[in-house]
Design goal:
The protein is α/β, with parallel strands linked by helices. It has helices at residues 2-13, 18-81, 88-113, 223-240, 273-279, 312-328, 330-334, 343-353, 371-388, 429-437, 450-464, 496-499, 515-529, 545-554, 568-584, and strands at 124-131, 137-141, 150-157, 169-170, 181-182, 184-191, 195-202, 266-267, 340-341, 393-399, 403-405, 408-409, 418-419, 470-477, 533-539, 559-562, 590-592. Strands 11-10-7-14-15-16 form a 6-stranded mixed sheet, sandwiched between helices. Strands 2-1-3-6-17 form a 5-stranded antiparallel sheet, covered by helices on one side. It has a two-stranded antiparallel sheet with strand order 4-5. A hairpin with a 3-residue loop joins strand 10 (393-399) and strand 11 (403-405). Helix 3 (88-113) packs across helix 9 and helix 4 packs across helix 8 (343-353). The two termini are 73 Å apart.
Length: 599
């Protein structure tokens, strides 16, 4: 029975037409298998292409960043090389051009180390990224884009010739497809990030200390350098040709004022101020009955308007105050100028006793130190940024007893005018420079409210900073913070061990019990907590270097010390170098999406 059943099944399996059905199945299966194998081959090749492109992309990103760093290195080297009176803009342009060869070589090297071929001549491109008036970003490429702030590196595998470093990619399953190779190209752009920089400048009275008589001490600058500086101040004021606002009479005639007609001065032994006044001929009048030798500064009223040429008792009292100072003050006495009435003591008196702008409206014209060195440094700073053209914007905050954002110049008696309007952080470098060059030490007030200045800078960046720009603050001082809000104290959560543990040993490396310094430090840390970089700069012997260094370290900035030297020229040179270093301290390059990249 079993054998019969097996025979029956065998007969059923060999029914007529079965061979045809098996043939039909094979006809249908072969195209399906071919398609499956094609899709599999296609998928594998796509994976290979993707992996290759990813490797190439990683290599060009590293190469672009390294190439951009060559530009920033060249800019920083240019800052070290710039000297006074050099064409800063040309120096930066030259540095930028010199960096091109180094950037090409670096891009090729980094790509090669990552196993990717880059032709340094054709695959490394340079350009400039900038914002238009509406705040939209644009990029231009080639020679017309100098100075460069963008580097693009391209990696290609598109050469049809086999065996070359940039040959097209061989496909693993090319035999099953029409295409045997694939062209692979990718690129990366690195750009040097623009900064919004707020300068926070010390306008306190101590910024004139190096031009005062006490700077003649052997422990400071010495007598000869200060005397030379006083002569320079006098000659500068004479050369300015400035006149009284109402009479047109010269304020600083080259012939002097009566018997005040020499640098060393005429000696008058009298202890009576009025007698000295008359003996110096300061009471003389001309044929029209007008004073021959009016006191050389007008002063300003509460509205900032010039008062006009001093006359009558005002004129006399101003000269009497000068005579009293020369006769009795320890500063001229200690350095051989007691009772000597001349250009040096007159200038010294104005700087020490009438330094505010509403008292002596023309001291901004003169090279009074260290204030003048700071002004020269800011001028170099603005020229450097203008030549750099990396898209940096700047703002200006000044501080003394209080602080303010500087945006307007419309002083009575000053021809230059500026109004930044709402552009409180701007690329109008010349306007910022013009404003600061018309200021003087103790322009508004004599004390040092550093924390107020840092606060205003932080708030200015919050309200006027550009999206995508690196917010940066530069604080410059020659003295100690000595003003802060009377009702302020450090927050209860403040811990110096956490904030200033710079070496990682769990202990603070800086702390202070001075509320004025605490306020400055706290304001800087508040800015750093917002992601702002805070650089600091100190000048002169009296600066609190520990405070300024600690602020920079706590706020991811750099601290530059310009301690001064044996001469005024030393101090000025140091400040010029310091401002140049800050200007050249551009942020590290960042990657930027390439709109032309296909990956």
């Amino acid at each position: 029975m079993m054998k019969q059943l097996q025979n029956l099944m065998s007969e059923e399996m060999d029914l007529p037409g079965d061979q045809n059905r098996r043939g039909a199945f094979m006809v249908m299966a072969v195209p399906f298998l071919i398609a499956t194998m094609g899709f599999l081959a296609f998928g594998i090749d796509i994976a290979v292409i993707t992996m290759t492109k990813t490797r190439m992309r990683n290599a060009v990103e590293a190469a672009a960043l390294a190439a951009a760093q060559q530009i920033t290195d060249a800019v920083q080297t240019a800052a070290d090389d710039i000297q006074e009176n050099q064409d800063v803009g040309s120096a930066v342009q030259d540095a930028n051009s010199i960096a091109v060869d180094a950037a090409r070589a670096m891009a090729e090297k980094v790509a090669r180390l990552n196993g990717v071929y880059v032709d340094p001549e054709t695959d490394v491109k340079f350009g400039k990224r900038y914002q238009d008036a509406s705040g939209n970003d644009h990029m231009i490429w080639g020679e017309g884009a100098k100075p460069y702030n963008v580097v693009k590196v391209i990696a290609r595998k598109d050469n049809a010739t086999e065996g070359q470093p940039d040959s097209r990619l061989q496909l693993f399953f090319a035999g099953l497809m029409d295409e045997k190779t694939a062209a692979v190209t990718t690129s990366a752009i690195a750009f040097i990030e623009a900064r919004d920089i707020v300068l926070v400048l010390d306008y306190s009275g101590s910024m004139s200390y190096d031009s005062q008589y006490d700077a003649m001490s052997s422990s400071r600058l010495g007598k000869a350098p200060v005397e030379d500086n006083l002569d320079d101040i006098w000659n500068t004021l004479v050369a300015s040709g400035v006149t009284f606002s109402d009479t047109g009479k010269l304020k600083f005639p080259a012939t002097g004022f009566g018997k005040i007609n020499s640098a060393q001065g005429v000696y008058k032994s009298s202890d009576n101020n009025t007698s000295v006044y008359y003996s110096l001929d300061l009471d003389e009048v001309d044929g029209s009955g007008k004073l021959k030798y009016p006191f050389p500064q007008e002063g300003k009223d509460y509205s900032g308007n010039l008062k006009g040429q001093p006359t009558g008792n005002t004129h006399k009292n101003l000269w009497l105050n000068y005579i009293q100072w020369v006769r009795t003050d320890s500063s001229p006495k200690n350095y051989g100028y007691k009772k000597k009435y001349g250009y040096r003591t007159l200038v010294g008196y104005l700087i020490e006793r009438r330094k505010k702008n509403n008292q002596s409206e023309d001291l901004w014209r003169a090279p009074i130190y260290p204030f003048h060195a700071m002004k020269e440094g800011v001028t170099l700073f603005t020229e450097f940024l203008d030549g750099l053209q990396f898209g940096d914007y700047i703002g200006l905050v000044t501080y003394d007893d209080s602080s303010r954002v500087e945006s307007v110049l419309n002083d009575d008696g000053v021809l230059d005018t500026v109004d930044l309007g709402d552009e409180l952080i701007t690329n109008r470098y010349t306007d910022i420079d013009t404003i600061q060059r018309h200021k003087q030490a103790s322009h508004y007030a004599p004390y040092t409210g550093m924390g107020y200045g840092i606060r205003d800078a932080r708030e200015l960046l919050q309200s006027h900073g550009r999206v995508g720009a690196r917010p940066t603050i530069l604080v410059m001082t020659d003295g100690n913070a000595n003003r802060s809000p009377s009702d302020w104290s450090l927050p209860g959560s403040w811990n110096w061990d956490e904030v200033t543990d710079f070496n990682g040993d769990g202990q603070s490396d800086y702390s202070t019990s001075s509320r004025d310094k605490q306020y400055a430090f706290w304001q800087a840390v508040e800015a750093a907590n917002l992601g702002y970089t805070v650089h600091t700069m100190t000048v002169g012997a009296g600066a609190d270097r520990n405070l300024m260094e600690a602020i920079a370290k706590a706020c991811n900035g750099i601290w530059i010390d310009a301690p001064g030297g044996a001469t005024i020229e030393d101090m000025q040179a140091q400040l010029l170098v310091a401002f140049g270093k800050i200007a050249a301290n551009v942020p590290p390059a960042k990657l930027l999406a390439d709109p032309e990249s296909d990956f």
